[in-house]
Amino acid sequence: MKTRQQAADGFYRHLREWFTAFLPRQRGAAQNTITSCRQTWNMLLGYVAEHHHIGVEKVTFTMVDRVTVTGFLEHMRATKSWTPSTYNQRLACIRSFFIYAAAAEPTLTIYLADLAAIPRLKAPAAAPVKYMSTDAVTALLAAPDPGTRIGLRDQFFMILMYDLAARDAEMLAMNLADIDTRRLTVDLLGKGSKPRRLPITSETAQHLGRYPAPRPLRRGLPPQPATGDSDVLHRAESSSDADV
Fold first, then answer.
1. Mean pLDDT computed over every residue of the chain
2. Residue 175 has what DSSP assignment?
3. For residue range 172-189, what is the model confidence (pLDDT) as tens digits?
4. Which helix (H) or strand (E) holds 204?
């Protein structure tokens, strides 16, 4: 049963609309972003309820103030070892809701102004990036044994990743059909499920020509059929099937 204060506050009504209407429909946020925001608010609501010694269902706007949110963020830094990046991302998620609520109901702007006083954390200066030498990169790419199917796969995977400078998730989501050796391009599904097309060198395309070619799995056995274009690039193969 809602109390009169809860009904007048409308905290959970705005929070529900933010999750069900604003983020997915109006903002078009990716599912991973929505999941991250949901995790943030689950943790924050639990902290607020414990801090005020009430049930989670009784949390109101007035309870989610600057002191409480700052205490929550610092508590998570101490107990969960949040980095400045994680700290700032969670703070941005909390503020995003209050921006939405203030736009929907101007009288709530006072709560947004209160949270605006919470400063972002400054990350420590990053160490200078040390690049591998040409010889080191060459040695790394030559490490897999191209005499085995797994070695041939791993070598091409590494060469392609180096050529594209692609993220891990982009490489793992890639299919052979995403690679166009005629146009020398590769289609990637980037962060936030955003597609992008990148060029590759002719040398990389030549390595692809070796990768899916039929090869004998063991001495005395017929060659394995060529891989279909729709196969995942990093498909798994057992070590027993890798011996030539």
1. 83
2. B
3. 888 888 889 889 999 988
4. helix 202-210
pLDDT tens digits, one per residue of 83-114: 999 999 999 999 999 999 999 999 999 999 99
pTM over 0.85: no
The beta-carbon contacts of 61-69 under 8 Å, at least 24 apart in sequence, are 61/9, 61/11, 61/101, 61/108, 61/111, 62/9, 62/111, 64/11, 64/94, 64/111, 65/111, 65/114, 65/115, 66/114, 66/115, 66/117, 66/118, 69/44, 69/94, 69/115, 69/118
Residue 34 scores a pLDDT above 80: yes
117-143: pLDDT as tens digits: 999 998 877 777 777 888 888 898 889
C-alpha 176/C-alpha 88 separation (Å) is 38
**To which H or E segment does residue 89 belong?**
helix 84-104
Spell out where the chain has E strands. Answer: 179-180, 185-189, 195-199
Instruction: Collect contacts of 59-67 with beta carbons under 8 A, ≥24 apart.
Output: 59/11, 59/12, 60/5, 60/6, 60/9, 60/11, 61/9, 61/11, 61/101, 61/108, 61/111, 62/9, 62/111, 64/11, 64/94, 64/111, 65/111, 65/114, 65/115, 66/114, 66/115, 66/117, 66/118
Strand ranges of the sheet holding 179-180, from the earlier edge strand across to the other edge = 179-180, 185-189, 195-199
Note whether 158 and 141 are within 8 A (CB).
Answer: yes
What is the three-class DSSP state of 53? coil
Domains within the chain, CATH numbers bracketed:
4-115 (no CATH), 134-214+223-237 (1.10.443.10)
